[in-house]
Structures are given as C-alpha cells and as structure tokens.
Amino acid sequence: MSPASDTDREQPCVTSPAPTGLSSQEATKRLTQYGPNEPAPIKGGAAITELLLLFFNPLVIILLIASLVSVILGNAADAVIIFVLVLLGVSINFAQTYRSQRAVAKLREGVTPTATVLRDRTWQEINRREVVPGDLVRVSAGDMIPADGKLIEASDLYVQQAALTGESLPVEKSAGVGEGSATTGPESPNLIFLGTSVVSGTGTAVIVTTASRTAFGAIAERLVMRPEETEFEHSMKRFGLLITRSVFFLVLFILAVRVALHKDAYESFVFAVALAVGLTPEFLPMITSATLARSAVRMAREQVVVKHLPAIQNLGTIDVLCSDKTGTLTTGQMILSSSVDYL
C-alpha cells in the first residue's frame, strides 16, 4: 500500500497489542505500509513543476510566441534575444524561490523532532518520522506530541493546543475519559494530537494516526499547496492579457488597412508582426524578477526567508496586519494596559 494512496487516507484505528509495544520488525512493516510520519511530505518533482508554472504567464507566453514567429519569418537574431530575456527572467525567479526552499529545508533538518516509544519491550528515543500506528509513546513536560493518539495513562497532563485551536490556555487530558464520546477533535479529553506540546505532567498513549492523516497534517497539506495569486501576480496577468489583445487587434487592423490599400499581403503580415514584437515589453519579466530577487536578498540579510517572490509586493502594501493566533504569534498572556473609572 502506498503511503499517499486513497485507500489508506482514512487510516484505521490501530491499537498496540499490549503494554509491550511493537517489535522492530512489526514497526518496519507498518512504516512501509503507512509511510514516514511527516505532516506534509515533500513531493518528488516539485521543483520541476514550479519551474514549468513560471512559463504559464500571459506575458511570458506572448514573448515565446513572438520568438517563434520571428524564427518562422527568418529573424533568428530577434528570436534568440527574446528567448534569452524570457529565460533570464524565469531563471532569476526560480533560482530565488529554490534557494529559499533549500534554506527552509536546512532549517528543518537542523531541528529533528524525536519521540520516546516502546520497541522490543524497551523505551527508545527515535526520529519522529519513524513513529507508526500502534506505537506506544511516552510524553512528559516539554515534549512535542509525535502523532495523533489515545491516552492509556495520564498524570496531571496538560497540553498546549494553540496550533490546532488558537486557544492559548493549556487543556487537561485524561486517560479513559470520554471513551464513548463521538468527539474526535482537539476538545476530546482522552486524545492527543500532532502539532501540540505537553505543558506539564506525563502520559502514555497508543498512536492511532500518523503523517498527513492527522488533524495537524490536514492543515499542513493546505499550507504546502501552491499559494493563491497575489494582487501583484494578478495585475501582471491582467497587463499581459491587455498586451495580448492590443497586439492581436493591431496586427489585424494593420493587415486589413494594407490589404485594402492593395499592398502585398506577405509584406503586410511581416510588417504587422514586426510591429507587434516591437510593442511587446521583452524586458518586463526579467526586470520584475530581478527587482523582486534584489528585495529578497535584502530581506535575507535581516534573517527573513522569502519563499514566494511576488509576496514581497503584497507585504509592502500592508497597512494593518490582524491575527487571532493567540499563543503562537503572541505571548498568550492577558495584561491590563489601562483602565477608566466612570464614577
């Protein structure tokens, strides 16, 4: 069974055979079956997909068509110049995006989360990626929950669930409480979830779901999807479509006028195409990419990693940023700022 297949998307509730946990052999088998415990696994070929998507820009498409037409008409030099400019613009954008993604990947590699599991009747600390359904895990104050699981033992266990609920106050968790409840979300008192952390107490749980099938994994998958178009990208596409329509109608108009004046049809077509190529802003994609890349480099000096170049323009237009993620972007502590006595 493939880790990403639809058949195991809804992972069954796998329980550990006993307090002895899993054997190494059974754990290896389940790791092959369900895949590594990564909330949002990196998909192969993502870099190639990202590169190809950069070519699906109206302005870039116009320039590539102009280059092709120049080749057909015998203007090889013009075609090469246009193609090189397009390639430079796309390469700058892709190189900066790829560099940022590599920087993020290195940061992740530098912080490798671990989990304490019972394997072969011995408590061991392993990489979180190797945790599988059915594993018996032990958590204590300061630990990150390695996957979604059901508590079988708990002692004064309080868990911080701000990443899932946005609530800054820790929630008490207990074994056996709410066993018959249909609630399976973070509010369930006997369930713990990947992405949350232990504030105090200790507990032992059997892992139920891992990887993208967890509650946190569903959120992480949405975050790694290609982001929505920024206003800057949207404006550039609108401009590209405007150029396309203008050039198309201009070519038709010039052809119609010259044919009406009994000019040679082929010469009229060559003249119209040459004019269209001249009106196309060949340098715009490259200038845009170079400008945004320069901004990304300046932000990198301030320890800011830019994963999506066009987002810089959106960030620059923000006047007020509002967020309700109490406890994640803020300290989660209420402080009296001022008071007014109306009496």
Structural class designation: alpha+beta
Average pLDDT, rounded to a whole number, is: 77
Q: Helix amount, in percent?
A: 40-55%
Content of β-strand: 5-15%
Whole-number tally of structural domains = 2
**H and E order:** HHHHEEEEHEEEHHHHH
Quick one: how many beta strands?
Answer: 7
- How many individual helices? 10
What is the CA–CA distance across the termini?
71 Å
In CATH's first tier, which class of the largest domain applies? Mainly Alpha
CATH-scheme architecture of the largest domain: Up-down Bundle
Radius of gyration: 29 Å
Globular, elongated, flat, extended or rod-shaped: what is the shape?
Answer: elongated
Unreliable stretches (pLDDT < 50, length at least 5) are 1-18
CATH superfamily of the largest domain: Calcium-transporting ATPase, transmembrane domain
Per CATH, what is the topology of the largest domain? Calcium-transporting ATPase, transmembrane domain
User: How many strands, which pairing sense, and closed or not: the largest β-sheet?
Assistant: 7 strands, antiparallel
Question: Can you describe what's shown?
Answer:
This protein is α+β, with helices and mostly antiparallel strands. It folds into two domains: 11-28 and 131-222, Calcium-transporting ATPase, cytoplasmic transduction domain A (Distorted Sandwich), CATH 2.70.150.10; 46-107 and 227-316, Calcium-transporting ATPase, transmembrane domain (Up-down Bundle), CATH 1.20.1110.10. Helix content is 45%, strand content 14%. The protein contains ten helices and seven strands. It has helices spanning 24-34, 46-54, 58-72, 76-110, 162-165, 215-224, 231-260, 265-279, 284-301, 311-316; strands at residues 114-119, 122-127, 136-140, 148-160, 171-173, 191-192, 197-209. Strands 1, 2, 3, 4, 5, 6 and 7 form a seven-stranded antiparallel sheet that branches. A hairpin with a 2-residue loop joins β1 (114-119) and β2. The chain is elongated and about 95 Å long. Residues 1-18 have low confidence and may be disordered.
